[in-house]
Protein backbone atom coordinates (compact mmCIF):
# COMPACT_ATOMS: atom_id res chain seq x y z
CA UNK A 1 0.00 0.00 0.00
CA UNK A 2 1.41 3.35 -1.01
CA UNK A 3 1.28 6.45 1.17
CA UNK A 4 -1.35 7.93 -1.14
CA UNK A 5 -3.55 4.86 -0.71
CA UNK A 6 -3.04 5.04 3.06
CA UNK A 7 -4.74 8.43 3.18
CA UNK A 8 -7.58 7.58 0.82
CA UNK A 9 -10.09 7.56 3.68
CA UNK A 10 -8.47 10.11 5.97
CA UNK A 11 -7.12 13.61 5.54
CA UNK A 12 -3.61 14.33 6.74
CA UNK A 13 -5.12 16.50 9.47
CA UNK A 14 -7.23 13.60 10.74
CA UNK A 15 -4.21 11.33 10.85
CA UNK A 16 -2.18 14.00 12.68
CA UNK A 17 -4.98 14.38 15.24
CA UNK A 18 -4.89 10.65 16.01
CA UNK A 19 -1.11 10.71 16.32
CA UNK A 20 -1.33 13.60 18.80
CA UNK A 21 -3.88 11.69 20.83
CA UNK A 22 -1.57 8.67 21.03
CA UNK A 23 1.35 10.86 22.09
CA UNK A 24 -0.68 12.43 24.89
CA UNK A 25 -1.68 9.00 26.17
CA UNK A 26 1.92 7.77 26.10
CA UNK A 27 3.13 10.85 27.96
CA UNK A 28 0.54 10.16 30.66
CA UNK A 29 2.23 6.82 31.38
CA UNK A 30 4.66 6.25 34.26
CA UNK A 31 7.74 7.19 32.21
CA UNK A 32 6.36 10.33 30.56
CA UNK A 33 7.88 11.50 27.30
CA UNK A 34 9.32 14.32 25.19
CA UNK A 35 5.92 15.77 24.41
CA UNK A 36 6.92 19.25 23.22
CA UNK A 37 9.27 18.20 20.44
CA UNK A 38 6.99 15.32 19.50
CA UNK A 39 4.04 17.67 19.02
CA UNK A 40 6.10 20.12 16.95
CA UNK A 41 7.01 17.33 14.53
CA UNK A 42 3.65 15.54 14.15
CA UNK A 43 2.70 17.14 10.82
CA UNK A 44 6.16 16.48 9.39
CA UNK A 45 5.88 12.79 10.23
CA UNK A 46 2.30 12.65 9.00
CA UNK A 47 3.22 14.19 5.64
CA UNK A 48 6.16 11.83 5.23
CA UNK A 49 4.50 8.55 6.17
CA UNK A 50 1.06 9.22 4.71
CA UNK A 51 1.90 11.14 1.53
CA UNK A 52 5.59 11.03 0.62
CA UNK A 53 7.64 8.01 1.68
CA UNK A 54 7.72 4.93 -0.52
CA UNK A 55 7.46 2.35 2.27
CA UNK A 56 5.35 -0.75 2.83
CA UNK A 57 4.53 -1.84 6.41
CA UNK A 58 4.22 -5.42 5.13
CA UNK A 59 7.80 -5.27 3.85
CA UNK A 60 9.66 -2.99 6.29
CA UNK A 61 13.06 -4.23 5.05
CA UNK A 62 12.40 -3.87 1.32
CA UNK A 63 15.78 -2.77 -0.10
CA UNK A 64 14.03 -0.44 -2.55
CA UNK A 65 12.25 1.53 0.19
CA UNK A 66 12.81 5.17 1.02
CA UNK A 67 14.68 5.65 4.31
CA UNK A 68 13.70 7.90 7.19
CA UNK A 69 15.80 8.72 10.23
CA UNK A 70 14.51 10.57 13.29
CA UNK A 71 17.74 12.27 14.23
CA UNK A 72 15.98 14.05 17.11
CA UNK A 73 15.36 10.62 18.60
CA UNK A 74 13.95 11.99 21.85
CA UNK A 75 10.70 12.58 19.88
CA UNK A 76 10.29 8.81 19.62
CA UNK A 77 6.72 8.89 20.93
CA UNK A 78 5.64 10.75 17.78
CA UNK A 79 7.48 8.29 15.54
CA UNK A 80 5.97 5.28 17.33
CA UNK A 81 2.46 6.73 17.03
CA UNK A 82 3.03 7.43 13.33
CA UNK A 83 4.40 3.96 12.60
CA UNK A 84 1.48 2.36 14.42
CA UNK A 85 -1.06 4.43 12.52
CA UNK A 86 0.71 3.51 9.26
CA UNK A 87 0.39 -0.19 10.10
CA UNK A 88 3.95 -1.19 11.02
CA UNK A 89 2.70 -2.62 14.33
CA UNK A 90 -0.64 -2.68 16.20
CA UNK A 91 -1.86 0.61 17.66
CA UNK A 92 -2.64 -1.25 20.89
CA UNK A 93 1.08 -1.75 21.48
CA UNK A 94 1.48 1.97 22.15
CA UNK A 95 -0.11 1.53 25.58
CA UNK A 96 3.00 -0.36 26.72
CA UNK A 97 5.37 2.48 25.89
CA UNK A 98 8.24 2.76 28.37
CA UNK A 99 7.11 -0.21 30.45
CA UNK A 100 9.16 -3.30 31.33
CA UNK A 101 9.26 -5.71 28.42
CA UNK A 102 8.14 -3.18 25.82
CA UNK A 103 10.25 -2.59 22.71
CA UNK A 104 8.96 1.00 22.63
CA UNK A 105 11.78 2.69 24.51
CA UNK A 106 12.47 6.36 25.15
CA UNK A 107 14.54 6.58 21.98
CA UNK A 108 13.97 4.58 18.77
CA UNK A 109 15.55 1.13 18.54
CA UNK A 110 15.87 -1.24 15.61
CA UNK A 111 13.59 -3.80 17.28
CA UNK A 112 10.61 -1.61 16.33
CA UNK A 113 9.36 -2.27 12.77
CA UNK A 114 9.98 0.78 10.60
CA UNK A 115 12.88 2.14 12.68
CA UNK A 116 15.98 2.17 10.51
CA UNK A 117 18.62 2.82 13.18
CA UNK A 118 18.80 3.76 16.88
CA UNK A 119 18.94 7.54 17.24
CA UNK A 120 18.92 10.19 19.92
CA UNK A 121 22.59 10.90 20.43
CA UNK A 122 22.14 14.24 18.74
CA UNK A 123 24.18 15.29 15.74
CA UNK A 124 24.52 11.89 14.05
CA UNK A 125 21.35 11.52 12.00
CA UNK A 126 22.37 13.61 9.02
CA UNK A 127 25.63 11.71 8.56
CA UNK A 128 23.74 8.41 8.77
CA UNK A 129 21.24 9.63 6.18
CA UNK A 130 24.18 10.56 3.94
CA UNK A 131 25.27 6.93 4.21
CA UNK A 132 21.84 5.70 3.16
CA UNK A 133 21.83 8.11 0.21
CA UNK A 134 25.26 6.93 -0.89
CA UNK A 135 24.22 3.29 -0.57
CA UNK A 136 21.12 3.88 -2.71
CA UNK A 137 23.18 5.63 -5.37
CA UNK A 138 25.82 2.90 -5.39
CA UNK A 139 23.11 0.28 -5.84
CA UNK A 140 21.50 2.23 -8.67
CA UNK A 141 18.26 2.85 -6.76
CA UNK A 142 16.03 5.91 -7.09
CA UNK A 143 14.97 5.75 -3.43
CA UNK A 144 15.30 8.88 -1.33
CA UNK A 145 16.66 9.33 2.19
CA UNK A 146 14.95 11.70 4.66
CA UNK A 147 16.09 12.88 8.07
CA UNK A 148 14.36 15.04 10.71
CA UNK A 149 16.64 17.26 12.79
CA UNK A 150 15.87 19.41 15.80
CA UNK A 151 16.94 23.04 15.64
CA UNK A 152 18.83 22.77 18.94
CA UNK A 153 20.64 19.81 17.42
CA UNK A 154 22.16 22.14 14.83
CA UNK A 155 24.58 23.26 17.54
CA UNK A 156 26.41 19.97 16.99
CA UNK A 157 29.42 20.40 14.73
CA UNK A 158 28.90 16.96 13.24
CA UNK A 159 25.71 18.23 11.58
CA UNK A 160 27.66 20.75 9.55
CA UNK A 161 30.41 18.27 8.70
CA UNK A 162 27.72 16.03 7.24
CA UNK A 163 26.15 19.00 5.45
CA UNK A 164 29.48 19.75 3.76
CA UNK A 165 29.92 16.11 2.76
CA UNK A 166 26.39 15.82 1.37
CA UNK A 167 26.84 18.86 -0.86
CA UNK A 168 30.32 17.80 -1.94
CA UNK A 169 29.02 14.35 -2.88
CA UNK A 170 26.04 15.89 -4.70
CA UNK A 171 23.55 13.77 -2.77
CA UNK A 172 20.41 15.21 -4.33
CA UNK A 173 18.30 12.23 -3.19
CA UNK A 174 18.91 13.33 0.41
CA UNK A 175 16.29 15.50 2.12
CA UNK A 176 16.66 17.03 5.58
CA UNK A 177 13.85 18.63 7.57
CA UNK A 178 14.63 21.01 10.44
CA UNK A 179 12.01 21.20 13.18
CA UNK A 180 12.47 24.92 13.88
CA UNK A 181 10.43 25.27 17.06
CA UNK A 182 12.91 27.71 18.61
CA UNK A 183 13.25 25.92 21.95
CA UNK A 184 15.53 23.36 23.51
CA UNK A 185 15.78 21.86 26.98
CA UNK A 186 17.33 24.94 28.59
CA UNK A 187 15.47 27.70 26.75
CA UNK A 188 15.30 29.56 23.46
CA UNK A 189 17.75 28.33 20.83
CA UNK A 190 18.49 31.85 19.62
CA UNK A 191 19.43 32.92 23.15
CA UNK A 192 21.74 29.95 23.63
CA UNK A 193 23.30 29.83 20.15
CA UNK A 194 21.79 32.18 17.53
CA UNK A 195 21.34 30.52 14.14
CA UNK A 196 19.53 33.04 11.98
CA UNK A 197 19.57 33.61 9.08
CA UNK A 198 19.26 29.82 9.12
CA UNK A 199 18.20 29.41 5.48
CA UNK A 200 21.23 31.36 4.31
CA UNK A 201 23.51 29.20 6.45
CA UNK A 202 22.28 26.05 4.71
CA UNK A 203 22.59 27.70 1.30
CA UNK A 204 26.19 28.62 2.08
CA UNK A 205 26.88 24.90 2.59
CA UNK A 206 25.57 24.14 -0.91
CA UNK A 207 22.03 22.99 -0.11
CA UNK A 208 18.75 23.81 -1.83
CA UNK A 209 16.55 25.42 0.83
CA UNK A 210 12.85 25.99 1.33
CA UNK A 211 10.83 27.16 4.34
CA UNK A 212 7.29 26.19 5.31
CA UNK A 213 4.68 26.33 8.06
CA UNK A 214 5.59 23.12 9.87
CA UNK A 215 2.01 22.55 11.00
CA UNK A 216 0.57 22.62 7.47
CA UNK A 217 0.69 18.94 6.55
CA UNK A 218 -0.44 19.46 2.96
CA UNK A 219 2.21 22.11 2.29
CA UNK A 220 4.86 19.91 3.90
CA UNK A 221 3.81 17.01 1.68
CA UNK A 222 3.95 19.16 -1.46
CA UNK A 223 7.49 20.37 -0.73
CA UNK A 224 8.83 16.99 0.34
CA UNK A 225 7.29 15.13 -2.59
CA UNK A 226 8.93 17.56 -5.03
CA UNK A 227 12.49 16.97 -3.78
CA UNK A 228 15.14 17.08 -5.12
CA UNK A 229 14.51 20.75 -5.82
CA UNK A 230 17.80 21.41 -7.60
CA UNK A 231 19.84 18.82 -9.54
CA UNK A 232 23.04 17.89 -7.72
CA UNK A 233 22.09 19.57 -4.45
CA UNK A 234 20.71 18.00 -1.26
CA UNK A 235 17.48 19.60 -0.04
CA UNK A 236 16.61 21.01 3.37
CA UNK A 237 13.13 22.10 4.43
CA UNK A 238 13.01 24.45 7.40
CA UNK A 239 9.69 23.77 9.13
CA UNK A 240 8.62 26.66 11.36
CA UNK A 241 6.82 25.03 14.27
CA UNK A 242 5.66 25.54 17.85
CA UNK A 243 6.87 23.27 20.62
CA UNK A 244 3.85 21.62 22.22
CA UNK A 245 1.60 22.81 19.37
CA UNK A 246 -2.06 22.14 20.09
CA UNK A 247 -1.91 22.23 23.90
CA UNK A 248 -2.50 25.78 25.17
CA UNK A 249 -1.03 25.09 28.61
CA UNK A 250 2.26 23.80 27.12
CA UNK A 251 2.61 25.34 23.65
CA UNK A 252 5.66 27.52 23.13
CA UNK A 253 7.14 26.64 26.52
CA UNK A 254 10.49 25.02 27.19
CA UNK A 255 8.77 23.21 30.07
CA UNK A 256 7.02 21.03 27.48
CA UNK A 257 10.35 19.43 26.54
CA UNK A 258 9.76 16.40 28.78
CA UNK A 259 6.60 15.85 30.77
CA UNK A 260 4.78 13.15 32.68
CA UNK A 261 1.16 14.20 32.42
CA UNK A 262 -0.78 13.94 35.66
CA UNK A 263 -4.34 12.60 35.42
CA UNK A 264 -5.59 16.21 35.54
CA UNK A 265 -3.26 17.41 32.78
CA UNK A 266 -3.92 14.29 30.74
CA UNK A 267 -7.62 15.18 30.82
CA UNK A 268 -6.81 18.81 29.95
CA UNK A 269 -4.71 17.69 27.01
CA UNK A 270 -7.37 15.33 25.69
CA UNK A 271 -9.97 18.08 25.99
CA UNK A 272 -7.73 20.56 24.15
CA UNK A 273 -7.22 18.09 21.32
CA UNK A 274 -10.96 17.46 21.02
CA UNK A 275 -11.58 21.21 20.88
CA UNK A 276 -8.96 21.67 18.18
CA UNK A 277 -10.34 18.77 16.16
CA UNK A 278 -13.88 20.11 16.39
CA UNK A 279 -12.78 23.63 15.39
CA UNK A 280 -10.90 22.19 12.41
Structure description:
This protein is an alpha/beta fold. It has one domain (8-279): Thiamin diphosphate (ThDP)-binding fold, Pyr/PP domains (Rossmann fold). It has helices at residues 3-6, 12-27, 35-40, 42-52, 76-86, 125-138, 157-168, 189-192, 198-204, 217-226, 263-279, and strands spanning 67-70, 145-150, 174-180, 183-184, 187-188, 208-213, 235-240. Strands 1-2-3-7-6 form a 5-stranded parallel β-sheet, with helices on both faces. β6 (208-213), α10 and β7 form a beta-alpha-beta unit. The longest helix is centred in the last third of the chain and has 17 residues, at 263-279. The radius of gyration is 18 Å and the shape is globular. Residues 14-272 form the Transketolase N-terminal domain.
In short:
The chain has 280 residues and is an alpha/beta fold. It has 11 helices and 7 strands.
Task: Provide the CATH superfamily.
Answer: Thiamin diphosphate (ThDP)-binding fold, Pyr/PP domains
Spatial ordering of strands, largest sheet: 1-2-3-7-6
Global shape: globular
Low-confidence stretches: none
List the domain count as a whole number. Answer: 1
Assign the CATH class: Alpha Beta
Mean pLDDT: 95
Domain Transketolase N-terminal: 14-272
Protein name: Transketolase
Keywords: Thiamine pyrophosphate
Family: Belongs to the transketolase family.
List the helices and strands and how they pair.
Layout: H1 3-6, H2 12-27, H3 35-40, H4 42-52, E1 67-70, H5 76-86, H6 125-138, E2 145-150, H7 157-168, E3 174-180, E4 183-184, E5 187-188, H8 189-192, H9 198-204, E6 208-213, H10 217-226, E7 235-240, H11 263-279
Parallel strand pairs: 1-2, 2-3, 3-7, 6-7
Antiparallel strand pairs: 4-5
Helix pairs in contact: 2-4, 2-5, 2-11, 4-5, 4-10, 6-7
Amino acid sequence: MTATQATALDTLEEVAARIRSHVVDMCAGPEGGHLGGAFSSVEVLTALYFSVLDVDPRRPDDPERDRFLLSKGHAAVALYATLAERGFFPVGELSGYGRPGSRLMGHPVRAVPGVELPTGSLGHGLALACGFALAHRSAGRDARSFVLLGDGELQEGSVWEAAIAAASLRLDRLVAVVDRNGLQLTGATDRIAPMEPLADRWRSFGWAVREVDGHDAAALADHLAAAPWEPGRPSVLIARTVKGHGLPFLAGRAASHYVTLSPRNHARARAALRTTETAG
